[in-house]
User: Fold this.
Amino acid sequence: MRYVDFRDLIQRELRQNPSGLTWAELKERLSLTYDRPCPTWVARMEQEVGLARMKGSGRAYLWKVGSSEQTNIEWIYEPADLFEATYKQVREDYELALDAGRAVAALCAPLNPVPPDVVDRIKADVEGVLLLRQLQVHRKYSLEGARICQYSEGHKNVSIEIGCGDLAVGKCQADVLVKDAADNVMRDSRAERISEHHSSLAVLAPKVIRSTILRSLLESYSRSISDPNDELVHLYEIRDALCKHFGGEKSTCAALGISASEWSRMGALANAAPVEQGRHRGQHPEGRRAATDSELDDARQLAVRWIMAFADSI
Assistant:
């Protein structure tokens, strides 16, 4: 690792935690391999980014950087394990991190008070990331906040705005870890999945901010999870919205590479099948049944594929 990479990594983590972290905590959070920090690098950071190390509890020293003032905007989301590893992104005027049920936006410059439009803009970013994550894992989530945390001279003041939503129910996922005779990791499906998901989030999250259509598609998918009794109704909203945007069925299928069989399958599931979750269940007063897991999986996969195709097109 180069010095500049080490410096930026430490600085970002400490900005997310203005109260300070010990070297042991930094090592664990950032997966650093060094037993001890390089004294030369520490000295440079003291000069360049204002790194300060002060006595903490026991024998440990707390690391802090930058000015004595810092503004963080924090939200609480559930389930806390929605992300398998910390997701981080650097924006123009803040750094965003989501992990273990906390979404933290560390402002690059302290603001007190924080203008409501700044909170709303960052919250829209957080919601966009969560909507995309929901698309990846098909889990409900709730978001509460925001808490505006002002740090000054080691003191923390918090103002709280409360919001609430549905709690989440998730499902487990089996992973594969393959090692050779020398104990070297040959394949780690969890690490591969995390890398793929984070790369996708990094590309798509800015598009959610810019595109009201993409956000609307994601919100329909979100409603299909939070309202399972009308799941196919909400998934069909995605087909309707795309059809309206592109000006018809043929132009939609051509623009997004949707086959005629895919298009018809969604229509058959949501409109024609005599299922409880469908759009026209009133036409089937007798013999109505719950949609099978296979039918719901088909509809979900189609919706996800179409949303991703639309996102790739903008």
User: Anything to note?
Assistant: Residues 274 and 286 are 9 Å apart (CA to CA). The radius of gyration is 23 Å. DSSP finds ten helices and eleven strands in the chain. The first helix runs from residue 3 to 16.
